[in-house]
Every structure is written in structure tokens, then in C-alpha cells.
Amino acid sequence: PRSIFLTRHGESEYNAINRIGGDAPLTERGRRYAAALRDFFILQKFTDLKIWCSQKIRAAQTAEELKSLFPTEYWKALDEIDAGICEGLTYDDIIQRYPNQSADRERDKYHFRYPSGESYEDVVSRLEPVIMELERQGNILAVSHQAIIRCILAYFYDRPLNELPYIDVPLHSLVKLTPRAYHCDSTVYKFNP
Ligand code: F6P
């Protein structure tokens, strides 16, 4: 059976100071995760693994050590949810500057669209071609972002849309999905880089 591996990028400079979005590089710890991921896939001995990476710097740096070993493609559709006017802010900044939007998001996180940005619903529609392709492919590792992986997991786990934005996808963990006839097996590998 083939497997779909999903991971967020390693810790970025923005993760370390709680800022959302942006295009920050990895921290030292994030780079150690990239190295651990490379070692993991070397041990797995896949001959036919393909890597799909977002176009953000933090994701590209996470895949950097793997790209000489496996064919790698960079998909804009795997970029993190666009937080529009909130890009680069912390959640505290957002509450301070945009209390109404903040409350709206809490009420209906799936449909809330960041001004000049996206909602989870928007992300689900931009991921449609990615998911269709994932269904057809063999072994894939997707290196992407929290909101994106939530949407992909909700599809394979068949989770309701109102729960989708709350699926737990911590940094430095790797999910392995193995699609079966009527369900999907999953294993989570946790790293402590
Ligand atoms: O904080 C990291 C991050 O990937 C942000 O870039 C993104 O806006 C956020 O997580 C998505 O999570 P939530 O929808 O829970 O804010």
C-alpha cells in the first residue's frame, strides 16, 4: 500500500515569536527538524517517493535536505492560509487591532475570511486539485503548513467542516496516511529536534 506523509515546515523565526503568516526562514531548531526528516526518509528506503512542497521559504528549507534524494515539486496551492491584513501579526495584536474580526473568527472559524485574505473554506477549494492528485499518486511527502494540513486531514479522516480548523497539527510531527478501501490508517511520528 502506498502512503501519504504530511508535515508542517520546521519551526520558523515567526513561529518562535508567535507571528502568523509571513515568509520567515527556519530557526536552528527548525533546521534540526529538517535534518531529522531527511534521516527518517533515508531509513525508510523509498525508491519512488515524491516531495510536494509549498513555495514558502520555511517549507523549502525543510525540504532542502531531501530534494537531492527525491523528485521535488513546489506547489503554490500548498502555501499557508493567507491571513490578509493580519499577516505578520500575533494573535494578541489581532485582538487589539481587529477585535470584531477576532470575535467573528471565533464564532465561525471555517467561514471567516481574513480581510484581503482567505478563509478555511477558500483553502479547501484551492486544495481540490491537490487532493485529486494525491488520490492518484503513489508515495508522497507534502511539506506544508498548519491550516493546509488540517484541510487535507479532514478530507482523508472525513471530519466535519466545523471541526476542521481545530485539528491538532503540531510542529515537528509527521503524519503517515495509508488509504484503505473504506478508511485511512494513520500513524504520527513525533520529533524533538
Ligand atoms: O501560526 C502558524 C500558522 O501556520 C499561521 O501562519 C496561520 O495563520 C495559522 O497557523 C493557522 O492556524 P489558525 O487558523 O489556528 O490561526
From TrEMBL:
| UniProt-annotated binding residues for substrate | 8-15, 58
Give the organism the record lists: Diploscapter pachys
Q: Which family does it belong to?
A: In the C-terminal section; belongs to the phosphoglycerate mutase family.
* Transmembrane feature ranges: none
Its taxonomic path starts at: Eukaryota, Metazoa, Ecdysozoa, Nematoda, Chromadorea
Indicate the residues that form the catalytic site: 9 (tele-phosphohistidine intermediate), 80 (proton donor/acceptor)
Q: What is this protein called?
A: 6-phosphofructo-2-kinase domain-containing protein
Domain of life, source organism: Eukaryota
